[in-house]
Amino acid sequence: MNDILSMNKILYTFAVIATLTSCASSWRVEGSTSVSALDGNKLYLRAIKAGEVKNLDSCDVVHGEFHFAGLLDTVRMANLYMDDESIMPVVLEEGDITIKIDNASQSVGGTPLNDSLYHFIDKHNQLSNRMTELSHRQSQMLLDGIDEETINQQLSVEAARIAQEEDSLVTNFIVENFDNVLGPGVFMMITSQYRYPVLTPQIEDIMSKATKQFKNDPYVREYYQVAQENEQRMNGLSETAAPAAPVDSIAPQTPAPLVNMPKP
What we know:
The protein has 7 helices and 8 strands. By secondary structure, it is α+β, with helices and mostly antiparallel strands.
């Protein structure tokens, strides 16, 4: 009888574990690529956990396909890497996430936050392309013999307009996503361009509207604190003359560009 009871307890325990496991949230990534540089290479999904950048999963690219999966303890921003080169950001959330990489573009979709992030990235890339086109137009106008001052006057107005559109796009996206991982994630992306934490009008505008949850994000909180200290140093208000802290001293990683094509 005791043996039967013990066996029943063991079977019950296994049943409970199986039930809990089956109910646990998970994320899955199905990837495809036509970029030959990726085929045969190992890819990594890395994210910040407990203040450190850690590998969440890895896989080989086989015939242009790759797969990741894991249990979801919390929704988080991650990055897809080849070796130590960051390729693109990915939001790890419940559901089937799809990654597509070709020679012209990179995208992530299939889940709400990834769809939202890459809709924003597409708009941001369009503005970047428009800015690049101004440089091409400048070269062509010079070849056409147009006066350089006239060229600068005309194109500077268009450049300022594009810059204002970019500023509004980024600011509005962060504000709309203050209380999920996209707000702090994109804030990290735009501030990584600075050698040291600085207070720009855009950053001041974002922080003036920020929610408590956004302000308490570890990266946002540390960046803003150090940026304020740097501002005081530049204004001669600090009692010490210690050098400003670089960005990578306050974050486990300095984010790469929004997307970054792997090199052959």
